[in-house]
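Recap for those who missed Tuesday's class. We walked through two folding examples back to back. For each one, the amino acid string is listed first and its predicted structure tokens come directly after. Nothing is annotated here on purpose, so try labeling regions yourself before you check the end of the notes.
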Amino acid sequence: MLDSRSIREGDAIRRRRECLQCGRRFTTHEEIEETQLRVVKKDGRREPFDRAKIMRGLMLACHKRPISIDTLERVVDDIERRVHERGEREVSAAVVGELVVEALRGLDPVAYVRFASVYREFQDATQFREIVDVMGEEGPPGGEPPEDEHAESNGEEQAGSTRR
């Protein structure tokens, strides 16, 4: 076992393991089985809360960005904890979406704009300009680069990395 830790204030355990035969790593989440939290979609449909959907959205938004999977897992853990802390059996998809937008805003400006543009269904370039203008007025999100940023930041390296 590589790592085992409590999440959601001790209500669950996240375990990271490595297969001794093939060396692949996998993560399990162990939790007390409770009444399953349901997400109410825009059209009124209800479906079970699915942390994997949040992770997929984050991974798409952070594609080719200097953000580790461990960082994204911590973001998903935090979002899931915050949703459960509400103490409700149902939560609207809008609440979950805004938690994701808020997390990305503090994590990476490009990922934030990517996710927000799809989530908020931008219809034209003026909406992109507005969100970028607001970000410029507020300064860089979070005040610090992500903890797993390895490369020195110069424009040439960053420009090249977005073309790969």
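Example two. Treat it independently of the first, because the proteins are unrelated.
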Amino acid sequence: MLAQEVFLRCLRDLSTLHDPRCFGPWLCSIARNVCCNWVRSRQHAPELFTDCESNGHAGQVPVLDRATEEAEMAYDMELLRAGLCALPEIYREVIRLFYSDRLTYKEMAALLGVSPATVNARLSEARERLRRWLINGQ
């Protein structure tokens, strides 16, 4: 996936390469930036999209002790994970691509084979469904 991102950025930004003799270092700098961004995003974004179908508890509110701040944070993360798992796949996918993979609407549209307007509509609906789920507890 990272290699694809590197080559997509390379193709997109090829017009910025002024000296063809510098192609190798230019490509390496793109690869380095893509990899650094990926590492940074993995450090700050907890894995919220795991086991949505396989855990058998999709959409269930977690039952945790809320006695400490750490436990409260864990509770909130589990609540968010449960809400994400409750979303239909079509909405969970755009949430993951936007917030976890940090793709633009244009990149998501190309990946999903839809228009950026469709991506926008799906993302808006996903946020609204998640908001309602979190407020109502399902």
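Answers for example two:
Residues 55 and 85 are 10 Å apart (CA to CA).
The mean pLDDT is 78.
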